[in-house]
Amino acid sequence: MDAGSQIDAAQLPDLMAAWADFVEGLKTILVDVARLYHF
User: Fold this and answer.
1) What is the pLDDT of residues 23-32, one digit of tens each?
2) Which distant-in-sequence residues (6+ apart) come within 8 Å of 15 by Cβ?
3) Closest by alpha carbon to 4, among 35, 12, 20?
4) What is the signed CA dihedral for 19, 23, 29, 34, rounded to 10 degrees?
5) pTM
6) First-residue to last-residue Cα distance in the chain
7) Nearest one of 15, 14, 18, 12 to 26, comparing CA atoms
């Protein structure tokens, strides 16, 4: 059994939501840094 089959289809929405939250947080940080340094 390979590792890929360990991810249950029911977990995918949770994973996608967590990834989306991470990306949004990253964008917020980048915008804050840009404002600080007036890019």
Assistant:
1) 999 999 999 9
2) 7
3) 12
4) 170
5) 0.56
6) 50
7) 18
